[in-house]
Amino acid sequence: MPSLGPLRSQPPSKVVPGRAWRVLSIIAAAVSVILSLVVFGAKLERLDVSPLLPLVLLLAICTVIFVHGRFLLHLHRQHRQTAGALHTTEHEFQQMADNIQEIFWTLDARTRKTIYVSQAYETITGRSCQSLQENPSSYEEAIHPGDRPNVLAKLQEATQSGQFHERFRIVRPNGEVRWVSVRGFPVRDSDGSISRLVGTAHEITEQKEAEDQVIKNLSLAENAWAESEALRRATLALTQDLRMDFVLDALLQSLTDLISCDCARIWLLEGDTRLFVAREKVRRETSKKRPTYPLTLDAADIPFMQRILGISQAVLFSDTKHEPDWHTFTGHTHLRSWLCVPLVASQHTLGLLSVGHNQPDSFTREDLRRAQLLAIPAAVAIQNSRLYECASIYGSELEKRIHDLHAAKKALEQSEESRKISEDKFQKVFRSSPVAFSITTVSEGRFLDVNTAFEKRYGYSRADLIGHTVHELRIWQNPEDRTLMIGQLQKDGPIRSVVAPLRTKSGEIKITTVCAERIQFDGQACLLATSEDLPQYKQPMTA
User: Fold this and answer.
1) Angle between helices 52-99 and 12-44 (to 10 degrees)
2) 10 Å Cβ neighbour count for 121?
3) d(CA 453, CA 437)
4) pLDDT of residue 39
5) Quick check: 266 and 248 in contact, CB under 8 A?
6) 524 phi/psi in degrees, rounded to 5
7) What is the full DSSP assignment across 399-442?
8) What is the pLDDT of residues 434-450, one digit of tens each?
9) How confident is the model at residue 337 (pLDDT cuts 50, 70, 90)?
């Protein structure tokens, strides 16, 4: 690009001769005038004048002519140099204006017609400068129709204020849309009125696209932040309280906060296909007949609901009129837009989240994505709530059983204490009774304990008896009598006054009445037996 040299004065070496010729011309002219006055004055007064004086006057006039001629020649040379410099400068400026990718323009402030526009007009607008020369107002056609009224109004205001700064769209002949930034400044006449507007215009399409992309990214970032914050609050709300009522209320509130809708419902699954509405929020009900509550349905009767439960996949109906089975969805036929997301935890479908709107095309894929994100913590919260309820039931039952166990333990302790008291009483009676007592096992007849009366009656010491069986000691004269007694005891209960012959240590046979009863002693089934002599058989018998 050629450089534009500044306009400047000639160097002093060239200016000084011009001034010298001007001074000499003035001096010569003054001398010629003085001499002319002297000569003509002398002639008028008819005085004698020296012949040399006219010659001097002629010489002075010739000198003036010469000096003025040189001065005029010098002025002519300076004019040619200045005109050449101006032409060169104008040419360089024109080249610079044509090469700069920025439009330089000038408009008539009164008519708003183009006076001048640089070559960049063709590059940016795709229209020729020639067409603008033929029709100075044709630049208006390049302005985008959507921006044209505002731009022309601002341009009209600029003819009064002198300031114009706008960013707007232009349309190239091929239909391509570009953005430009235009600035304008006033040129005023001597009376202060604005005669022209001059300014620049440059293309900012890439800059505007970058700005739009930044705005879009900021909007996406803000939306993502708001969405993550809403999901964070929803997750926090769903985990604050494990009670099912609280979980469902928090879930419904989070769903309506994330997605704007006319109807939001939480469905819980009972069995394989039975659904019921656990929570709902209806903003506007266009249906004249409201469904009975709680709203329940069988997914097997609604094909698309059966598909949702079968494959556990979310669906979005932009317009329910295009869904052939929508009429089978009881209580929802008035909705025109509808989306549904299954609640899945541990590979089991727990229920559904659904939102509806009375207008078609009200939901987007972004809304569906938000609902799917919410369904993840929601399903976990519902599952945890159910586990919590089961744990609460088990906990209550366990608490009751622990209470019963404590009561049983207390009763056992009291029973044990009573048993010890009874045992102490029994031992006192057992030891001190004059009646012979013995405790033997049912199965073997092994002696576990005897009292003092038994030792005296049969002549055995306690050490002789404990650990030995009745068969080893041959106490029963007829062992069959004991077998029959045990059979009768097991069949009819306690034995009262069975007469049997028993042998003492010395071999004496005593006819005895035996009473027996089954007891537990040291964890074994035992016989507690008493024996007394019959009065009519006091005479001893020997074996």
Assistant:
1) 150
2) 21
3) 7
4) 63
5) yes
6) -120, 155
7) HHHHHHHHHHHHHHHHHHHHHHHHHHHHHHHHHH-SSEEEEEET
8) 888 899 999 899 999 99
9) very high
